[in-house]
Amino acid sequence: MEVERRSLSSKQASARQMLRGDLEGEDLDRYVEERVVTTTFEKMLNLARANSIFPLTFGLACCAIEAPISVVTARYDLARFGAEALRASPRQADLIILSGRVSIKMAPVVRRLYDQMLEPKWAISMGACSSSGGMFSNYAVVQGADKFMPIDLHIPGCPPRPEAVMYGFSKLQRKIIGNADQGWRQRYNAAGTEEWARGGPASAPSPEAAEAYEAAREISLA
Amino acid sequence: MPDAPGLELIRGEIERDHPGSVLATSFDRAQAALVVDPAQILTVLSWLREEPGQSYRFLSSLHVADYLPAAPRFGVHYELLNRDRVERLRVKAMLVDPAAPALPTIDSCVELFPTAEAQEREAFDFFGIVFRNHPDMTRILLPDDYVGWPQRRDFPVGGEPVTFTYNEHTYG
Questions:
Q1: Does the beta carbon of B162 lie under 8 angstroms from any beta carbon of chain A?
Q2: Which of A76, B25, B44, B76 has its CA 20 to 30 A from that of A89?
Q3: Confidence band (pLDDT; 50, 70, 90) for A196?
C-alpha cells in the first residue's frame, strides 16, 4: 500500500478548508451568531457550578431513603443534572442535604460538617422535620434546621417524593446560576417586597455587625 | 410463662427464703409480674437467677415507667426470661419520688446481668433513676449537658407553638 506523501503546508491548508466549511459571507455570520454565546466570566462560572454539584453523602433519617439513595439510582438518576458524584468528605462537597430530623445532639455535628465544606456551598433542608421539626414537636428535635445554619432551599413533604427532591434540586441550580425563582412573590405579583429590596435591616447591617463580621472573616482567613 | 398458680408458687418460695421481699403479685393478660421491695431487688433477682427450679438467667429488658398520679411514682421493670422453658417473668420495683433535687435510687443489677449496663444508663438518662454501684452512671442518648429528665410525665413536651388557624380559634 502506497502512502500519499504531502507537504506539511498542504496538509494545514486542507485542514483549514475542512474547518471553515462551505459557508461564506452573510450565511457564515448568521451561523456564528446562532452558535456562539457571549457572557460574563461570573455567569459562566455559575453555570459550571450549577451543573457539577457534588452532594455530601449524608443522611439523617427516613428522608435519606428518598434523597441521597433513591435520587441517584437509575430510575431517577441525578446524574442527568451533573450531581451524581456524592462525596463522603465535607471538604469535597458543595451541597449538604439535611434529610430528616435534626436532634439537638446531632445539631452541632451537622453545623461542623457545614462549616467544614468549602465555599461556595449550599444547603437543602429536605422534608418537614428538618424544615420545621415536623411531627416531632418535642424536647429532642431542633424545630427547624435554619435555627443553627443557613438553608438555601426547603423541600416540603413527609417524605418528599424523589421527583420533589429533583424539582428542588433544579430550583437550586437556577438559584446558583443567579436566576432564582421568586416563588410566591411571583405568583402574587409581589416581586420587590423582599426585605433587602425594601431597604430593611437585612440590606444594610449595623456598623458593629459589619465590623464584627470583618474581624471574624479575617481570623478565619488567617 | 408461669400461670397464676405458678406465680403464687414462686412467690411462696421466695417468701420462704427471703421473707418480706415480695410485696404483691399481678397476673394480667397472661403476663406474670412480681412486685418486690426495691431494697431487696438484688436478692430477688439473684434468687430467680440462681435457684435451680427457676433459673431465669436472661434479662431481656429493663425499663422504667412513670405512673405520676400514683403514689410510688416510678416503676423499674425487669423482664426476665428462662430460655430453656421459654418462660417470661416480670419483676417490678416501685420507687417513691423523693423531694425535688434528690433522685430515686435503686441497686444496679449489672453484676447479675451485664446487659443492664446500657439499659440502666438509658433509664437514668430519661427518668433520672440512679442505679447504685453502676460502673458508669452517665447520660447515654441525650447530650451530656442536658438538664432535666424528659420522659417523666411532668416534663414539658417542648417544641414550639405553631399558629395554625385551629390554634388561633381555640386559644385566641
A1: yes
A2: A76
A3: low
Mean pLDDT of chain A: 83
Name residues 192-221 of chain A within 8 A of B (Cβ): none
Beta strands in B13-171 (DSSP E): 22-28, 31-36, 58-66, 74-82, 87-95, 105-107, 130-132
Stretch(es) of chain A classified as CATH 3.40.50.12280: 48-181
> Which CATH homologous superfamily contains domain B4-171?
NADH:ubiquinone oxidoreductase Nqo5 subunit (3.30.460.80)
Contacts of B157 in chain A (CB under 8 A): 137-139
pLDDT confidence band for B100 (50 / 70 / 90): confident
Provide the residue ranges of all domains of chain B, joining segments of one domain with +: 4-171
Summarize pLDDT for A61-110 with one digit per residue, the tens.
Answer: 888 888 778 888 888 888 888 888 888 999 999 999 999 899 989 999 99
